[in-house]
Amino acid sequence: MGNNVIVVANRLPVECHEADGAATWVRSPGGLVTALDSALSRHACTWIGWSGRACDEQSIAADLPTRIHECELIEVPLTAEEVASHYEGFCNATLWPLYHDAVAPVVYNRSSFETYEAVNRRFCDIVASEAPRGATIWVHDYQLQLLPQMLRRLRPDLRVGFFLHIPFPPPELFGRLPWRQQILNGVLGADAIGFQTADALENFLASVCNHTQASGADGFISVPGSADEPERTVTVGAFPISIDVEHIGALATDAATAELARQVRSDLGDPRTLLLGVDRLDYTKGIEVRLQAIVELFEDGSLNPYETVFLQIASPSRQNVEQYQRIREQVEGAIGRAVGDLSRLGTSPIQYLYQSMPSDDLVAFYMAADVMLVTPLRDGMNLVAKEYVAARIHDDGALVLSEFAGAARELRDAWLINPYDTDGTKRAILRAVRASKTEKARRMSAMRQAVVRHDVQRWSDEFLSILATTDRQEIIDLRERSGLPL
Length: 486
Ligand code: G6P
Known about the structure:
The protein is an alpha/beta fold. The protein folds into 2 domains: 5-241 and 457-480, Rossmann fold (3-Layer(aba) Sandwich); 245-453, 3-Layer(aba) Sandwich (Rossmann fold), CATH 3.40.50.2000. The chain is built from 17 helices and 18 strands. The strands form 3 sheets. It has a 10-stranded mixed β-sheet, sandwiched between helices. The chain has a 6-stranded parallel β-sheet with strand order 15-14-13-16-17-18, sandwiched between helices. Strands 2-3 form a two-stranded antiparallel ribbon. It is globular. The structure holds 6-O-phosphono-alpha-D-glucopyranose. 6-O-phosphono-alpha-D-glucopyranose is lined by residues 10-11, 29-32, 141, 165-166, 317-318.
């Protein structure tokens, strides 16, 4: 008999890298895996998802690890055509830009929605065949928004939760989607739906009201019945995701991490000030925004290029999607120009690494950096911001954070910026660089308290307890006790 908790996400926590006919398994990219992997590390569960490689439907990767921690892994095979049309197409050329305020053009393609449906159906069949009677199924993110309703129809005995890791767009943007009703009804098939922020929740409720028969108030949506299905109540709320504070704290106190941090600074020429950016190479992350601000600060003499280094670590992402190829060209073109203009023989104030970095090593970079720059144009949460704060165990360092990242709701003591305002961003960076020790300590300590109070374990416990509860008053009490916004 399978596990009673089944996590379903487009990606498994490991992805397959194939080179020279050999396959190796490495941790999958992105905040979803970072958070879930930590949250589930102490629970027996099953994780169903895709391995990151295309395979024909029969040939499930024989070498997929069967478990990670206490988690059994089950692969959903996707063909190369499905990867192109579902993952690269509908998920990352349609939904991703649309849900991020359409900061890049949105592709509307009818056949890719059909593949999205077919892939959601495949996930549904695999989950339904693995789930014991009455199991809890926790579905994650925009790649699987049809799955809750599909599961409810096939297996009404299951308790289904859905969590959206990215923003939910304002109704006037979401309303452009030709498949808006299918998506909303798909998500509404869940018993509990979670969003990162109260804004995302409000946007969702407005779209539900515009395009479906359901209506919501005070954290509940009532979904009218039909000939086949009774009327239901769905619980909705904002559950800001977080990080494994204990793990990052333990790494930050480890002598080996401190040594690595010293090494990083020394390799960079022991600058007086080290500014750092760490992102998937994605057009939502505003890498070009911070680069422009920093280059101008060097050019106008506010930052001294002989004493300051800006290091950008960008991990490769979705490299077959056109918009990602374009942003890579833009970012790397801008970096090349800046390096050409600002460097002296043998040294450069701008350093760039295009590679995935093991997450534990990143802690050393966080410890090395005087100022962390997190400047997305739109971001569901942004766990890098929270990780940086968790790594600054001595209450030093400074965080410059975009107002348009979900994390800005909790990290009010960061130097908050509007990434569309280059002058404002420059001012905030300079203030962060020049702030007194006392000022930095005051801000960092307040942010650390916020992150410590609400770590990833608490996030998953809160979501799962609300999902497990059917009594309305008990849900209201649970919410009040945990201080969750409606
Ligand atoms: C974000 C999304 C995740 C996604 C991750 C990495 O965090 O919310 O669903 O898995 O990015 O993106 P990728 O396309 O590589 O899975």
